[in-house]
Amino acid sequence: MKWRHIISRITKGIVFASLGVIAVNTSPLANAQEDANAQENNLPPTARYAAGEDLDLALIIAEWKERFPDIPVFACACNADACAHTERWPFRNYSRYQLTVALGPFNGTYTESLGFNCFDIQTGQGLDQAPEIPTDPPEPEPPVEPEPPTEPTGTPMASVSADKASLILTWPDNQTNTIDITGWNINVLDALDCETVTQVPQKTLNARRIIGTPMVDPLTDNVAVPVLLEECLETQQTAVFVVDPQGVGGHALYRTQVPGERPLPNEFSSYGLSSISGLQYWDSTLLVRHGSASGAEALLVFRPDITPAGKFASCGFLNTLEGANRLCPAELAEPSE
Question: Would the keyword Signal be found if you checked this record's keyword annotation (predicted)?
Fold first, then answer.
């Protein structure tokens, strides 16, 4: 009798334990929730974005590059008060200067029809732009008798001197204005001091040379000029100055201002940019593309404002490799996973 009692208790314990396990594993609500979570986590970035999730455009670009490596990707900025992109992917509404992306020229053209401006993220060219061919400054005319100076007409062409220390503006009537950029300066907040290899609260840096291609706004004749300020530890500190030509003999100079954690003290200050890879004007809206040494990239948008330099409007990540969180202003500098 004693052994029967013990065996009976053990058997009941096993049965109850088994029933408990079965009850947990066969709960339909728990299994359904787990399946839903798994499916949501496995959705590609394009589907998550269309579903309303806020995530970096860089994740969508990476997905497209993997699936469609031969099709160009276009970055698009809303250039109207509102852009309704609700009939097709990504099924969203955008406000002015918000960014999105489009896969291929067909989708890029459709996106532009909704009020966006789009350009190829690799070449920097718009949908209706032919590739730019670098040109040298025109040969100077033979000496002639001096004539009274006249105001230049038309939109100037911008070029760079051989030593990259001067901006050369040439008007259609062959009048030119050569501007030395080495006297330009800007107060950079949280700057990297290359002498001490430390970050300092602020430092006034001078332009060393022009990097890349200056861009002329055909609507205003303003010229955006990307310049190198300082370079050390494989890190560039750069800025974009905007020249307002005032005849052949003069100009006004402005600085684009990138915001950050602290308020900018004056119009001569900005947080620094990294390696600038391209500039573009769209209806007087300036787009600045810059990146880190690791290959991370971001696109900054400066809308027209009371000065030719415009005002910062938005920033979007194009590639979220190491260092991406330093490419957009602090409040926007957390790329999605």
Answer: yes
| pTM metric for this prediction | 0.75
Question: pLDDT at residue 4 above 80?
Answer: no
Opening angle at CA 168, ends 162 and 172, nearest 5: 130
Q: Cα separation of 46 and 89, whole Å?
A: 9
User: How many whole angstroms separate alpha carbon 205 and alpha carbon 219?
Assistant: 30
Measured CA to CA, the distance from residue 98 to residue 295 in angstroms comes to: 23
If we measure between CA atoms, which residue out of 258, 222, 217, 281 comes closest to residue 79? 281
Residue recorded with tokens 């332009």: 207
Q: With contact defined as beta carbons under 8 Å apart, do 199 and 189 qualify?
A: no
Q: What is the dihedral of CA 261, 262, 268, 274, to 10 degrees?
A: -20
Q: Express each pLDDT in 81-94 by its tens digit.
A: 999 999 999 999 99
**DSSP code string of 123-190:** T--BTTPPPP---PPPPPPPP----------SPPEEEE-TTS-EEEEE-TTS-EEEEE-TT-EEEEEE
**SS3 call for 60:** helix
State the distance between the two ends of the chain, measured CA to CA, in whole angstroms. Answer: 65
Element at 113 (helix H, strand E): helix 104-113
Q: CA torsion, points 137, 223, 184, 247, in degrees to nearest 10? A: 80
> CA torsion, points 79, 84, 85, 91, in degrees to nearest 10?
140
Read off the pLDDT of residues 190-247 as tens digits, 9 standing for 90 and up.
Answer: 999 999 999 999 999 999 999 999 999 999 999 999 999 999 888 899 999 999 999 8
Half-sphere exposure of 266 (CA within 13 A, CB side): 5
Are 324 and 298 in contact by the 8 Å Cβ rule? The answer is yes
> Distance between CA atoms of 239 and 260, rounded to whole angstroms?
14
Return d(Cα 300, Cα 292) in angstroms, integer.
14
